[in-house]
Amino acid sequence: MISFSNEGMRRLLAGYRNFFNGNPVRKGFCALHAEQIADTQNPHSMVVSCFDSRVCPEAIFDTNDGHICVHRNMLNQIDKEDFSMVASLRFAVKNLQVENIVILGHSDCNAVAKLKHLEELPPELRAWLDRTHTCYRGESLEAAVKNNVLDQLAHLHSIDFVAEEEASRGLKLEGFYFHIDDGRMERWNNADSVWTFVPTEEKDAC
What global pTM score does this model have? Predict the structure, then answer.
């Protein structure tokens, strides 16, 4: 059994099951239905994804255009000094009133792996990866990536306008870990402090 929290999360997880089981409904954006979303947008969630080309949030959650907004950067960083990040986050939270903010980590994350040897990197990469002082924590790369997701969730909680929306209307902050090699996905269960696999069959998600 898995908790949905809100309608937006239900739709994200239902979309993931479609993706995993090879039954996606996503057709992609084309001119034939452009006019349906031309005048407004009403996304239920914001996804902060890594820059990795193998991870496509719109496909993983099997969403149609206009259902989620996505911000991508190396390391999924939530950085108060990154004006692009904060502006996107504020617009999603305050103007679009998203129900969820999802940090989407993934297996074989090269950005997290590079945290072990920052001194060996070119200056621009070193400067970016060290912006929020996130470090490589864990006995394996998978553990380090998952810990980075938790670090970024903590950064989210520390942002005033995010905390305000959590308290006033129940904005949910969620952590996910996507396995590139087999398409499985884990979700952070904050109540039990454990990662659990997201059910891939509808009967297990009721």
Answer: 0.90
